[in-house]
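hiii, so i know i said id send this last week but things got crazy w the move. better late than never?? heres the sequnce for the chain we talked about at the cafe, plus the structure i predicted for it. fair warning i was half asleep when i ran it
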Amino acid sequence: MVKVKSKWVCQQCGYETPGYLGKCPDCSSWGTLTEEITAREAKNSSPKLNKLSDSPPQLLGDITLDESIRYKTGMTELDNVLGGGLVKGSLVLIGGDPGIGKSTISLQASGTLAKTGLKTLYASSEESGSQIKMRSERLGVDSENLYIQAETNIEEIQMGIDATSPDVVVIDSIQAVYSMNISSSTGSVSQVRECCSILMNLAKCKGITIILISHVTKDGVIAGPKVLEHMVDTVLYFEGDRYKSYRILRTMKNRFGSTNEIGIFNMENTGLTEVSNPSELFLSERTDAVTPGSVVIAVTEGARPILAEIQALVGATPYPSPRRVATGIGYNRVLQILAVLEKRVGLNLSKQDVYVNAVGGINTQEPSADLGVALAVATCARNVTVDPATVIIGEIGLSGEIRRVSSIEQKINEAQKLGFKKVIIPSSNLPVKNKPKNIEVIGVSRLIDAISKSITG
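okay and structure toks below
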């Protein structure tokens, strides 16, 4: 006997309820619950296990590691973000805005993996085989071990995997794939969850590395239920302005490596190319003209130091409440820095609009950028300038003290490589080991001291 059941599922977070609700109790989204019909065969008893599982318990000491467990993609930036390469039998999720480069980097990586002898299957549910062929010719991707399958049915894709026995599989995209066992529409929570579950079983049981490409919502988060991110091993997110050439690949989750690494790419006509020196990219449009409110900071993204420009604009507001806008820097962090400037330095910003921007599209949350933000705001408010050959590094405490930061030697070396002559750092970071000879390092302990020592003239 078949029982037909109906449930309402939130398409934003996956919350399930037996009846319709206008607002989702879990994620507070309005109008996101849709009805899904499920048909199940009634069973009187659960199946009995008559034999031991194919994966019996093992002692930790008896488990051996395979040295060839990782696959190199041929792109150093991508390998670093993944923690050294694609892990055999892992499930990787890549998300990002439309046109940001998800399919491009996946096809490029597939071509490189296929050339190394790994059998690769690229299953596209959004493009035909001829369209993929046109893109592959533009990207210079061609290999005898690269298979293309244009299919939206997960069962057909599974049959293609069984027929080709690939080492790596790319699914583009997971929201456009459906299963015949689920009656709901393509892209619904149930469909996405079921298809991801099937692919996860294939990855773990057969040792196949699977890359899933995912859409994002209008809020910039990966579309589909949060359980999708919990099921996969690695979550990568593409960032960047689609109207500019650079792209940043950031790790949101990684069971096999660090979640602090980023990869930086440049989008060209022939595909994505790696950026070996990201500091030059973020400072490429910085002019030699001295401008109030412009400061160069040094932050650490993953294991690499990066120099970036912070710009601030301060002006009188015509409104009762002044505006505070922060781009690339944490909004609450900027409010805290402005409060310290008012209380400890005496800078009156209560009737001033303040705009802070990390130029180049970088998004940093590291506290070592605090001092640079404070100096950018202070110099713009007083119409003075910071020496353009100076890099600012330091965290600001609520009492106006400059606190110690990490990786100071790497940041100073990066500043020296790009030709900067002076670095202002916290006094607690002195002395600096292995300091370059042709750069001046100045230690400061208070915010007011940093302002006086960094202003030119």
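btw The chain has eleven helices and 23 strands. thought thatd interest u
miss u guys!!
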